[in-house]
Amino acid sequence: MKVLKFGGTSVGTPQRMKDVSALITSDGQPKLVVLSAMSGTTNTLVEISDYLYKKNPEGAYSLIGQLEQKYLAHVTELYQTDEWRERTTIFLKEEFNYLRSFTKSLFTSFEEKAILAQGEIISTNMVTNYLLEQGVNAILLSALDMIRTDKNAEPDFNYIRERTTAQLEANPGYDIYITQGFICRNAYGEIDNLLRGGSDYTACLIGAAIHADEIQIWTDIDGMHNNDPRVVEHTEPVRQLYFEEAAELAYFGAKILHPTCIQPAKFAGVPVRLLNTMDPHAPGTIINNEMQRGTIKAVAAKDNITCIGIQSSRMLLAHGFLRKVFEIFETYKTSIDMICTSEVGVSVTIDNTSNLQAIKDELKKYGTVTIEEQMCIVCVVGDLATQNVGFETRACNALQEIPVRMISYGGSNHNISFLVNASDKKRTLQALSNTLFD
Ligand code: ADP
Ligand code: ASP
Ligand code: MG
Fold this sequence. Notes:
By secondary structure, the chain is an alpha/beta fold. The protein has two domains: 2-219, Carbamate kinase (3-Layer(aba) Sandwich); 297-436, VC0802-like. 39% of the residues lie in helices and 23% in strands. The chain has an eight-stranded mixed β-sheet, sandwiched between helices. A six-stranded antiparallel β-sheet has the order 12-13-11-14-16-15. The chain has a two-stranded antiparallel sheet with strand order 5-6. The model has no long low-confidence stretch (mean pLDDT 95). The structure holds adenosine-5'-diphosphate, aspartic acid (ASP) and magnesium ion.
């Protein structure tokens, strides 16, 4: 069986929901389909939660009302029969009354996560109802019964495998299994999520769990482009990526994929195909276990990076210095992305600054600490093994005019990363595109 995931734009209007339904039923093959919330909905739910955190129930109430009107209008457009219009209207009214119930109670991150889950719950119910109205043999399985995170907020893979398999075995013979992306339960059984853009992660976790033939991520662009199309002009689709290359691009900012979604597919050896819902016959990108030699594939950028420098003459010829430094980051559960060392100093980058002050205070015991904010990691991905003489030079040459704060090369065979000021991001990406892909 294949697992197909459709993102927010792909189900963003009633017409798109109809198109997706036609697409998933066209070949008669059984499928497991993961859906995101309609585009814009999760952002509105975040905004509603923000009003509730700020103890402004009127603000939340007004946004809930606007969203409800939008959805009720979709019902008229999506369904042809009174029966399914009525059923879906009743469902939506219950949903929006549920959202309204949060305006009367204490508001914590627990309530926020329950609110954020409703976008996917609504979209999957609407599409399943549409398929049923069309006479398709479809069933909705709740992701809340299949996807769980552990105490470290990481997916609990054994649980996911057992529960997904059990759900499919308990409901045999359907042509289309629909489920929600993004949402899950945590180790305490509470509603949680896999962070923004997490529907890709759901699809890859499920695809790996059931050893799917293929995981397809359907979105609004023809596959992974060789640079960020939101920033750089004339980007081109990349037709094939090695798992590691795709994982690096996703982690370092290629928004088309959730940062960690490739890992489960890679471990299970399930190929991932990126496809365009707006142009279903376009070839897209296949991500698999084949490493193409001698090519640089793509460039991506990760924003909101903070660089921490620690200078200390005590580091000179001393052993154990780096361990002490890294222990501080471990204590504050802050992961490091890039690292460069010299005899008298070390620089690292982080993207989670929630414990920055405490980390800085601890690091001061070991040296002089400097913090540089608003930086950006630009990552070049491809066959960058050391024996490929000259590839890293080409990337460095592209950046002749740009102040580069750190360079990381040799950590893997697939990546060279540069740390630059966020204000230089656009020209860095453009310069790399001009040099590497023209
Ligand atoms: P979905 O809602 O389907 O999950 P996303 O908005 O999360 O879609 O991801 C698709 C978007 O990712 C594209 O519209 C594009 O603007 C952006 N994007 C950023 N970098 C890349 C890249 N290297 N290749 C393709 N798309 C990219
Ligand atoms: N709806 C969620 C979001 O907007 C998850 C997703 O679309 O992947 O982040
Ligand atoms: Mg996405």
